[in-house]
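Anyone else keep sequences and structure tokens together like this?

Example one:
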Amino acid sequence: MRFHSPFLQPLPPVAEKLGLRLGRSTLRVVALALAALLLVGIVVRLRLLPPTGIGRILYSVHDSLYLPLKGYTYTLHFPTSLLWWLGGALLAGMVLFFWLTNISPTKRPHIWALRRALRYPALQQFLLLVGGLRAMASRQHTAGQILDSYLLRSMAVAGYAPSFDHCTRCGEPGPHRWLNPSAGGVLCSDCRLPGSATPAAETIAVLGALLAGDWPAVEAAEPRHLKEASGVVAAYVAWHLERGLRSLAYVER
């Protein structure tokens, strides 16, 4: 899966092989510089040079700068200072590795975050939208019924799945004649709430078919039942979104 994110545009491309960007000659220079630095450290540590000339300069830097810094940051705060030195060495190694290999330290974590962000249910919502648009483009079904089916399924994916064949409060199998969006679907006569609607039995059957994708049952329904089902879908979505979809007013029914 490819991602197109504005955060990834300014980042350099990931090298296919280590050292591809700098070439072998540059890598050799860097390796020689690190080896020379390590060798100088060993020579100064073991006092192998005479205390004159370059040896005097190296010993002075070692004694006046390195030893006080080490004594304060390492010896005085030991063993906590081990974390500082190991952390600094790890950070320096990572910076050198990313510079030599041209691998961005932020690109791969960014892609990982994008993959986690596209996990369920967001990916299901995206696939559901693509399926609805494909069905509209192919004119397999009426656009209004595709929209109603998409809205019901989208609410189900988001965790607000309506129930049209069982009572949403006691679970008694239907069919039931009472329907309340705030309750999440149909209600039996014992559980019905004040203000519940009483749509036709055929309308409730159409709603169940839209949710399940039973298109033969939807296409066999009468226009008045389809229109009533569209009103129920709009009311159900508006209740759970806590606002109405103003764009529904421009959809031809």
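And example two:
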Amino acid sequence: MIFYHCQNIEKNLKYSSVVSLDEEDIVFYFDYYYLILVLPALILSILAQIKVKSAFEKYSRIPTRLGITGREMAEKIMISSGVNGVKVSRIGGSLTDHYDPSSKVLRLSEPVYGKTSIAAVGVAAHEMGHAIQDKEAYGPLVLRSTLVPVANIGSSFGPILAFAGLFFKFGLLTNIGIFLFSGAVLFYFITLPVEIDASKRALKILESTHSLTNEELAGVRSVLTAAAFTYIASALTALMSLIRLILISRDRRN
């Protein structure tokens, strides 16, 4: 749910953030573009991740009134929403929950799958929001699914090719790297409406089916709102990293 699609790109953002160039050679240090653009976004991203983990841990300790598990909530929403052919399975780790449109599998992490907490039910409902999007062929979800390989390639090789082009003074290679990384940035921004819409669907379903009390709904809203900030912070970090690459490339040409 929260970090599944973003981890690979953020690893490569950290790599690219410590490399800069002067007029003669490559220098490994925190350049002023990094300090002005990327570092504040990274700090915001870290704070957002701390916030969502804190909210998730808080509401993971509070059981729901009905004692329904994350898996049971997902199955209940499937029935009420007319979603067919989706399998609910368990996945290791924490905050690794996600819906896979290609295989029609909703994967719930250990703290969600068999747990009866407010956080577990909220996360399961959010992921079912994606399954409903898939059923309805929700445009941004279809586009995001198409962009997954582009984002993986762009985040892995874009910064490397861009800096290699700068080092060898090969402008075409730099431009290819920036172009590839732009695909990863686009993926982040397409993710925003997909995730926010899934959370809205989750809250609406939980409220309309009277699955949770008002107090429990408030807890789910806190968890999902905190998650939304991680998407925004990640998108901002990716955008600032792209702008930094473009500015370094411009300075190198001048």
